[in-house]
Predict the structure of Aconitate hydratase, mitochondrial.
Amino acid sequence: MAPYCVLAARLRHALNGGIRRYHVAPVLCQRAKVAMSHFEPNEYINYEKLEKNINIVRKRLDRPLTLSEKIVYGHLDDPAKQEIERGKTYLRLRPDRVAMQDATAQMAMLQFISSGLPKVAVPSTIHCDHLIEAQSGGEKDLRRAKDINQEVYNFLATAGAKYGVGFWKPGSGIIHQIILENYSYPGVMLIGTDSHTPNGGGLGGICIGVGGADAVDVMAGIPWELKCPKVIGVKLTGKLSGWSSPKDVILKVAGILTVKGGTGAIIEYHGPGVDSISCTGMATICNMGAEIGATTSIFPYNERMKKYLGKTGRADIAALADEFKQHLVPDSGCQYDQVIEINLSELKPHINGPFTPDLAHPVSDIGAVAEKEGWPVDIRVGLIGSCTNSSYEDMGRSAAVAKQALAHGLKCKSQFTITPGSEQIRATIERDGYAQILRDVGGLVLANACGPCIGQWDRKDIKKGEKNTIVTSYNRNFTGRNDANPETHAFVTSPEIVTALSIAGTLKFNPETDYLTGTDGKKFKLEAPDADELPKLDFDPGQDTYQYPPKDGSGQHVDVSPTSQRLQLLEPFDKWDGKDLEDMLILIKVKGKCTTDHISAAGPWLKFRGHLDNISNNLLIGAINIENGKANSVRNALTQEFGPVPDTARYYKKMGVKWAVIGDENYGEGSSREHAALEPRHLGGRVIITKSFARIHETNLKKQGLLPLTFADPADYNKIHPVDKLSIVGLADFAPGKPLKCIIKHPNGSQETIMLNHTFNESQIEWFQAGSALNRMKELQQKSS
């Protein structure tokens, strides 16, 4: 049966309530179109193509499909011939759009400029949210950021205008909240240059975090490659109530799957419990799926999404989605690779940390656990907001807690900050009084930006090295992430729990059972917060912060000064010389966790994200060297002196010596930042050998012409010592699925051989041979012209 279009749905809605009934001709349905967003009125949702591709694949596979499979396979470049096997084959996909935040957009746009293409092939946007430092409050911090980052903002605005990319100015909000409000929709495939892009799964889309080079592929109109993901089903039963929140769902899942349990898989939520969660709550859950290594996360289309679409001015998209709903939910009887079941009625409030987002504790236990472990129980700062929890509902629930404290004369014992997710959220919570309630309880409203969540925090209340505790509604809590202090014990939880704990000032407070004492001396217990998921009135859009790209940007000048310390045009990386990689030195053998924060720190380094040589001065400065247990201190094998990691890498490059890095499990977990791959390549690195990789980082390394390899036997990690030399042999026969041989040469003259695995396919091997994916793109362009 042919699906009806949104115009037909509107006509039915208008006519069914009256006396006369009219037949809507199918030809009318075929002509009506629905725009992907208000900002791109000539770019349309193509559910017909999605349906066609799904039907082709379903017939080929002859089985029910999960929702993840429907949307992913529905975007195949060639659904009739594409080899499909979960966890094994690489898919060639055609995403609908691209989104880039300002820290990663700089390198992405520099690469796109290098491609020589005149304009992006798909709708794309840039969002200015990462370069605003939290210091004294929203307005002042925004003015300061505009002044300090004027060169970068001008580059991004003019590059967007020239190449057809929409530009969201600083102050507009966090990329993921803007996407949810304007660009995500059921069935969309969107890639974004930020690891928390899966936030859009709260609106039923497949939204995947990638590096800038992947974004360039899609913007260039090239099919995008993704290893066919496995699908982990999370069945939700029961209903959220009381102090339990959507954040507790993902905190619980993180505790079950750990930081690498979702690697190579899409997390697909389903079951009767889904309908008890708001659309923005579903986005929270999908957002933090990045912390378990998942490719992305998704919820099936339902009434909560329809309600959100209507409230954000997209009722036409909801009506169209209603007509195609069978393709926006999983098939009955579909099979998952793994199933986790959570009864929401039994789910207790959780708090995860410190130092890793998968260390899960019920809030009722955290005080005792902290005292046992020697973690500080006094809370210095509570921080709510971020891309994970800054919705209208989140702010409303936090305000409901704060209002109770104020009624008894109390304010926060801890410092307290609030980060609105977008200008629309800021304006609406100001209008509806939530912002003032949060100020009255002691809160400081920060700019609509990432702020402390990504280390953009000019923190003054402690000294570096001082042991302390903070609680946040953020998503990530790696060592030093928020304030660059390795002794800050950061815990993540829901905004309402952060608010309650900030009022009490201690981890030993359990709002479900414990009492506070008002200024009148009377004890009282906080009631579980209740708030509207969406405003009763329409959202207040606030200030207009969007810059449309001109129809013809060919005359736009994009300026990159050769003397700039913030921006640097890219030079092509050298091609593989056709020889084996022999006698490589080991720059560092990393001990334990090594996230992208360890490889390429954020915080104050964000200002160099558009200048490859300058930002390379932070290469691996946070990684722990197994030889001496120190960070940013490695032995120079040529001089035998210990020094900073970047300096040592530069010395090897100057001397023409290739080098390798040895890593542990889940190397490169965390952010999508491709600088963690660009920097080692720029400073002469050739190989990264680990026990396992995080998905995005492994792809980023391949894109830049590096060899990410894994030990065939993880125990071989112990055979390599920092003073050894390594040779990777057999590269002339480099082929998909064929292990590579590594010869370890010890200082005493002995040697041993181990085998290394890889996940390269044929096109990725071509990236390595060409020197990078961008080099390979240029080669293909030259051949075609």
Summary: The CA atoms of residues 302 and 451 lie 33 Å apart.
